[in-house]
Amino acid sequence: MTRMRKLSVVGAVIATTYGGTMILHNAPISTSDYGGGSHLETLRKKLHAPNAVVPSRETLQSALMATNKANPLDVLVIGGGATGTGA
Question: What is the DSSP letter of 28?
């Protein structure tokens, strides 16, 4: 094995180890966490906000019709409706 190849293998091992450590160290917040924490409570309040406003179908349609070549759509999902609005 050449010296450059050995160096690249060692670098890859170090990068993989560091990346794995960062992923495991910064684990995502879950509902099974002990104590909950203020960050988790803030997320829960945002998800279950009783005063959240869901746009009407007419509002969604007018936004869709307002698209043109200067303001194109990125993605058009047919049949999606107001998905993910919590309703």
Answer: P
